[in-house]
């Protein structure tokens, strides 16, 4: 034992290894030292030979200094809140990298003077929605609503809202609490399933700050329902604020029931709010569009400073709006036949490796608070459920699928073609680690 202890290399000797010296440059000294200490402990305990300390430390190192890891989203949920919602386009990623150092976010290089913060992103947003007289960007859609409530109703003013739209966004956060927390008084009208324009009209008084319409983006009420048109609500003599949710700027034939910013403004909304990281496909942010005087009131409210976005967000937003279509768009538009062909090819490849794999039809979803109940036709590779955990643990890129009826489905609607090789490598590696499985008698082309 003492002999083994003596043979375990000293910390400074291990740290001098070029691989660990390089890792120290990327990860910092303390992370590398902890990995070395852990490897030394394993060697002293006899778990690894002393000459493997360096290799064990290298193997245990994280890839980056931050703990967030890229994953392949094979859940079939396009905008998955737990997986960071919209994946950024390459243009947006490059814009983020360009803005990461010192940059002219609030500075005019020609005059050498201070300039309007994020003017490029704001101009892109204004161009994308010409109906908006003014635009503003905050931290997220919840912040956009909070700012509306604070600036327009924060002094106890009333917000008139339908009982059918008092929604919980997720993770226990409820819109009514957000609005009353801002100092506004909620005037609930109508019922869960039916609210008429007369219900709203009867609640409007001199205390009314605005009428609020919230898109029920994460649930659907069907059956005996009714709600007034946006244009009817805009005609009640008080400002109408519309939260469209998913960030669709113009009508989309692929998602005909999803409300959009342009239509809401055309119908007479004074202000429209939306998220940047749902169907728009950009970074997390809250978008505000509307009447110039109202947007200016929001912009000048003291809280606006606490809700403002950073330069990285502004860079990614502008590139999302001006650059090529972001991944969310491309994945929404991929023809199902293409997904089926990809699923069949992968299933064939996995079956040749002896795995119980088949291609299946699947239903993908927008998710993340967008297009509730809308099923996007898709195709998946189906594997035994036992694959789910090793796929999530796979390196370098974890793969997250969904388990349904004892099968692990890898839905290709949310997987980019460029991610397919990593996905295949992860499945084949997981297959080698799992007990051999029997191959079910389906066609080898995966057309089961
Ligand atoms: C998603 C959503 C929100 C919350 O947006 P965040 O950007 O996550 O703050 C609010 N309202 C609606 C209708 C939504 O769909």
Automatic annotation (TrEMBL):
<keyword id="KW-0963">Cytoplasm</keyword>
<keyword id="KW-0648">Protein biosynthesis</keyword>
<comment type="function">
    <text>Converts seryl-tRNA(Sec) to selenocysteinyl-tRNA(Sec) required for selenoprotein biosynthesis.</text>
</comment>
<dbReference type="InterPro" id="IPR018319">
    <property type="entry name" value="SelA-like"/>
</dbReference>
<dbReference type="GO" id="GO:0001514">
    <property type="term" value="P:selenocysteine incorporation"/>
</dbReference>
<dbReference type="InterPro" id="IPR025862">
    <property type="entry name" value="SelA_trans_N_dom"/>
</dbReference>
<comment type="pathway">
    <text>Aminoacyl-tRNA biosynthesis; selenocysteinyl-tRNA(Sec) biosynthesis; selenocysteinyl-tRNA(Sec) from L-seryl-tRNA(Sec) (bacterial route): step 1/1.</text>
</comment>
<dbReference type="InterPro" id="IPR015421">
    <property type="entry name" value="PyrdxlP-dep_Trfase_major"/>
</dbReference>
<dbReference type="InterPro" id="IPR015424">
    <property type="entry name" value="PyrdxlP-dep_Trfase"/>
</dbReference>
<keyword id="KW-0663">Pyridoxal phosphate</keyword>
<dbReference type="GO" id="GO:0004125">
    <property type="term" value="F:L-seryl-tRNA(Sec) selenium transferase activity"/>
</dbReference>
<dbReference type="InterPro" id="IPR004534">
    <property type="entry name" value="SelA_trans"/>
</dbReference>
<protein>
    <recommendedName>
        <fullName>L-seryl-tRNA(Sec) selenium transferase</fullName>
        <ecNumber>2.9.1.1</ecNumber>
    </recommendedName>
</protein>
<feature type="modified residue" description="N6-(pyridoxal phosphate)lysine">
    <location>
        <position position="278"/>
    </location>
</feature>
<keyword id="KW-0808">Transferase</keyword>
<dbReference type="Pfam" id="PF12390">
    <property type="entry name" value="Se-cys_synth_N"/>
</dbReference>
<keyword id="KW-0711">Selenium</keyword>
<dbReference type="GO" id="GO:0005737">
    <property type="term" value="C:cytoplasm"/>
</dbReference>
<feature type="domain" description="L-seryl-tRNA selenium transferase N-terminal">
    <location>
        <begin position="5"/>
        <end position="44"/>
    </location>
</feature>
<dbReference type="GO" id="GO:0001717">
    <property type="term" value="P:conversion of seryl-tRNAsec to selenocys-tRNAsec"/>
</dbReference>
<dbReference type="Pfam" id="PF03841">
    <property type="entry name" value="SelA"/>
</dbReference>
<comment type="similarity">
    <text>Belongs to the SelA family.</text>
</comment>
């Amino acid at each position: 034992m003492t002999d083994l202890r003596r043979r375990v290399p000293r910390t400074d000797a291990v740290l001098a290894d070029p691989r660990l010296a390089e890792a120290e440059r990327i990860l910092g000294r303390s992370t590398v030292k902890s990995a070395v200490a852990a490897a030394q402990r394993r060697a002293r305990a006899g778990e690894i030979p002393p000459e493997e300390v360096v290799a064990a430390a290298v193997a245990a190192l994280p890839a980056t200094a931050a703990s967030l890891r890229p994953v392949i989203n094979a859940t079939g949920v396009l905008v998955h809140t737990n997986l960071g919602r919209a994946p950024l386009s390459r243009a947006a990623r490059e814009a983020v990298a360009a803005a990461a150092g010192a940059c002219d976010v609030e500075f005019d290089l020609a005059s050498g003077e201070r300039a309007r913060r994020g003017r490029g992103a704001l101009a892109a947003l204004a161009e994308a929605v010409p109906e908006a007289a003014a635009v503003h960007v905050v931290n997220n859609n919840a912040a956009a609503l909070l700012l509306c409530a604070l600036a327009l109703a924060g002094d106890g003013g009333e917000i008139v809202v339908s009982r059918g739209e008092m929604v919980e966004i997720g993770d226990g956060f409820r819109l009514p609490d957000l609005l009353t927390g801002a100092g506004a008084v909620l005037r609930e009208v109508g019922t869960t399933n039916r609210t008429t324009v007369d219900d709203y009209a009867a609640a409007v008084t001199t205390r009314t700050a605005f009428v609020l319409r919230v898109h029920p983006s994460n649930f659907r009420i069907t059956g005996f329902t009714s709600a007034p048109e946006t244009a009817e609500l805009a005609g009640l003599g008080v400002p109408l604020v519309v939260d469209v949710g998913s960030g669709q700027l113009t009508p989309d034939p692929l998602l005909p029931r999803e409300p959009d910013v342009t239509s809401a403004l055309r119908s007479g909304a004074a202000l429209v709010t939306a998220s940047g990281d749902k169907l728009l496909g950009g970074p997390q942010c809250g978008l505000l569009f509307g009447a110039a005087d109202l947007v200016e009131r929001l912009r000048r409210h003291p809280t606006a400073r606490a809700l403002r976005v950073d330069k990285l967000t502004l860079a990614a937003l502008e590139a999302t709006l001006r650059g090529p279509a972001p991944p969310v768009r491309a994945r929404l538009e991929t023809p199902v036949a293409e997904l089926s062909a990809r699923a069949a090819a992968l299933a064939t490849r996995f079956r040749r490796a002896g795995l119980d794999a088949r291609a299946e039809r699947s239903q993908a979803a927008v998710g993340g608070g967008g297009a509730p109940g809308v099923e996007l036709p898709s195709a998946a590779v189906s594997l035994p459920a036992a694959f789910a955990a090793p796929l999530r643990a796979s390196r370098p890129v974890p793969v997250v699928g969904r388990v349904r009826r004892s099968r692990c489905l890898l839905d290709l609607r949310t997987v980019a073609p460029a991610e397919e090789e990593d996905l295949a490598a992860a499945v084949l590696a997981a297959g080698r680690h799992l007990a051999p499985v029997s191959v079910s008698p389906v066609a080898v082309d995966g057309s089961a």
